[in-house]
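Subject: for your reference before the review

Hello V.,

The reviewers asked for a structural picture of the protein, and I figured it would be easier to keep everything in one thread rather than splitting it across files. Below is the amino acid sequence we used in the manuscript, unchanged from the supplementary table.
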Amino acid sequence: MPQAAPPPRRGPASIAQPAPARPAYDAAAHRQCLASLAADGARFESLPDRVYTSQCSALGAVRLLDIGMPVTNLGQMTCPLADALTRWTRDATQKAALAWLSAPVVRIESFGTYSCRPINNVAGARLSEHGLSNAVDIAGFVLANGRRITVLDDWNGPDAYARNFLRAVHDAGCRRFQVVLGPDANALHRNHFHFDMGPGRACR
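And here is what came back from the structure prediction:
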């Protein structure tokens, strides 16, 4: 089951910070994304647009059914996020696993996608990309030999091969997603990689 989000923490701001400007929803771009997602070999279903609150929504979202391996806890996500995740899973993750761990990945563990909350659960912060179904948190990987690699235990763990694997998939994420945050970003990301397709660029 996805981990329940903790209640928002009180931050220094009392008014929600404005979100960066983002392109308006583009139906033609969405159709092109769906075609790209299908060409990448993903099986998926398109979901109806949903607006949950004045801020939180799922527009142009899909549900991934098969991207070549199970990914736990995946819910609705925007098509660009789904396409980036499919490519990262299919290409970068397997390549890094074979190079550093000599075994393919058979399951990826995530903390989920949609969650209507501010960034880092800090009250007063602007809306997280999770609130727009535009982010996914990746926590661990299970290999064909039964070994489990987690961000929490292995990012700074004793096994250099596991550390190199995690850094390889983190860096590959930076080439596919707009924003990537891991344990070196802050303590809140000590146990997962945050990937999103929001405005702006960050790789930490």
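For the response letter, the relevant points are probably these. The two ends are 27 Å apart (CA to CA). The first strand starts at residue 9 and ends at 10.

Happy to draft the paragraph if you're swamped.

O.
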